[in-house]
Amino acid sequence: MLKKIFLWVFVILVIIVAGVSGIVLLRQNQTFDAPLPDIHASTDSAVLERGKYLVYGPAHCADCHAPAGTEEAVNKGEIVDLPGGRPFPLPIGTIYAKNITPDKETGIGALTDGQIAQSLRYGVDRNKHALFNIMPFSNLSDGDLTAIVSYIRTIKPVKNIVPNREMNVMGKIIVAFMMKPEGPTGIPPKEVPVDSSVAYGEYLAKSVANCYGCHTQRDLKTGAFIGAPFAGGFEFESIIEPTKYMCMSPNITPDKETGVMSEWSEETFIARFRAGKRIPHSPMAWGPFGRMSDMELKAIYRYLQTVNPVKNQIEKTFYARKS
């Protein structure tokens, strides 16, 4: 009798596991509806110049989409090709930066302007699959979204086949049941005035340069934010020796005891960005950010002085991995 009970329990467990596995596999390619933004590429020289500035400056597209071997050029803020392919190893598997050149076979050349804008604003790829929540562009203004789409239409097309994401078992479960595209938090603005105001600083820090995304602790399994805004504590593998060293984002709230911003004047803040990368292992996009004007850096500084001060002591921002 006992053997029969164990046998039935075993059979039921096998059925359950097989059923869940089947559902997980079936949901790997689930699609999501997302609006198609009314964005159209422009040939206006001012729009293209703004797009170039964003792509190689505060939006730091080159930091992810440039090919291997160009790290030093990117670090210097130089103009490089953007054929993607860079791997991002995560606890759930490995994702790869897409080819965002206008090559028609392997890049964005066959996509409409609206489809490119849709990926940036609503976090879905050309097949409506959810993208991992890594880009901060959901709340870009229509003007800046148009500028980026317009400019990348003009860059050198590079043929480069980028691998599909490679998810492990945990990753496939998360893709099946938890990964959903991120969209705007409200109605994106048509334009955002470029000045040294706190409002423009918030726009840069949250929607363009992604200060919020890197200086807030996140769950690398889902991309969800799990820490206090701008309080640091987000761990990154070294971009040079990822198996040996780690970096941790500092607390950039104005907390008087543990926040970096309480120690820095506006002039010190600007000077730090002009100095460039000091820790070679750091993923911080010092080169692209160094292209920002003093006015924009002032705006970010002034905004960060207004965020909620959070007591979060970051002892080290660069350290050896535990063996």
Describe this structure in words.
Helices cover 36% and strands 6% of the residues. It has helices at 2-26, 45-56, 62-65, 71-75, 113-122, 142-152, 169-177, 198-208, 211-214, 266-275, 286-289, 294-304, and strands spanning 87-90, 93-96, 166-167, 235-237, 245-248, 318-320.
Please provide a brief summary of the model.
The chain is mainly alpha-helical and 323 residues long.
Number of strands: 6
* Total domain modules: 2
Computed structural class: mainly alpha
The geometry reads as globular
Radius of gyration: 22 Å
Q: What are the secondary-structure elements, in order, as H or E?
A: HHHHEEHHEHHHEEHHHE
Strand order of the largest sheet: 1-2-3
Number of helices: 12
Indicate the proportion of strand residues.
Answer: 5-15%
- Please give the alpha-carbon distance between the first and last residues: 50 Å
Helix fraction bin = 25-40%
The major pleated sheet works out as:
3 strands, antiparallel
**What is the residue-mean pLDDT, rounded to a whole number?**
91
Give the secondary structure arrangement, pairings included.
Layout lengths: L1 H25 L18 H12 L5 H4 L5 H5 L11 E4 L2 E4 L16 H10 L19 H11 L13 E2 L1 H9 L20 H11 L2 H4 L20 E3 L7 E4 L17 H10 L10 H4 L4 H11 L13 E3 L3
Antiparallel strand pairs: 1-2, 2-3, 4-5, 5-6
Can you tag this structure with a few keywords?
mainly alpha, 12 helices, globular
